[in-house]
């Protein structure tokens, strides 16, 4: 009788561990959000190059305006494909902004001036 109860107890414990391994945890949803690449082309409306905050405001071809925060890792490339600074961007420049978006956070990888 003790052997039957022991075997039954082991089966119940094993099945509960298997069931628990299949359940998702709240942190799984955060891990599932992968960074999706984005590319926006348009015209520069304004550039903010400051000590604490850098951004470029771009109007795309459909007239939508978007402000892109620029950090130190973003690469700015001029029309001659030379590395430039954010201050080299001028209002009216046609640019291509490339980066990644994870959830609500967008990270700009590069801003390239188009000819």
Description of the molecule:
- This protein has 115 residues and is an alpha+beta fold.
- It has 2 domains: 2-32; 36-113, Beta Barrel (OB fold (Dihydrolipoamide Acetyltransferase, E2P)), CATH 2.40.50.320.
- Helix content is 24%, strand content 43%.
- It has helices at 2-22, 26-32; strands at 36-49, 54-60, 65-69, 75-77, 83-84, 94-102, 105-113.
- The chain has a 7-stranded mixed sheet with strand order 3-2-1-6-7-4-5, with no helix packed on it.
- Strand 2 and strand 3 (65-69) form a beta hairpin.
- The longest helix has 21 residues, at 2-22.
- It is elongated.
Strand runs, count:
7
Spatial strand sequence of the major β-sheet: 3-2-1-6-7-4-5
Specify the CATH architecture of the largest domain. Answer: Beta Barrel
Overall tally of domains? 2
- In the CATH hierarchy, what is the class of the largest domain? Mainly Beta
Q: What percent strand?
A: 35-45%
Give the biggest beta sheet.
7 strands, mixed
Strand-and-helix sequence, N→C? HHEEEEEEE
Rg calc: 26 Å
Tell me, briefly, the overall form: elongated
Secondary-structure map:
Layout: H1 2-22, H2 26-32, E1 36-49, E2 54-60, E3 65-69, E4 75-77, E5 83-84, E6 94-102, E7 105-113
Parallel strand pairs: 4-7
Antiparallel strand pairs: 1-2, 1-6, 2-3, 4-5, 6-7
């Amino acid at each position: 009788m003790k052997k039957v109860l022991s075997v039954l107890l082991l089966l119940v414990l094993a099945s509960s561990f298997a069931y628990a391994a299949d359940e998702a945890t709240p942190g799984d949803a955060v891990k599932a959000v992968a960074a999706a690449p984005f590319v926006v082309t348009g015209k520069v409306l304004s550039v903010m190059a400051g000590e604490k905050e850098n951004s470029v405001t771009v109007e795309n071809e459909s007239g939508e305006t978007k402000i892109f925060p620029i950090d130190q890792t973003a690469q700015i490339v001029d029309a001659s494909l030379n590395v430039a600074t954010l201050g080299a961007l001028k209002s009216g420049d046609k640019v291509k902004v490339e980066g990644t978006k994870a959830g609500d956070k967008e990270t700009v990888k590069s801003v390239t001036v188009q000819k």
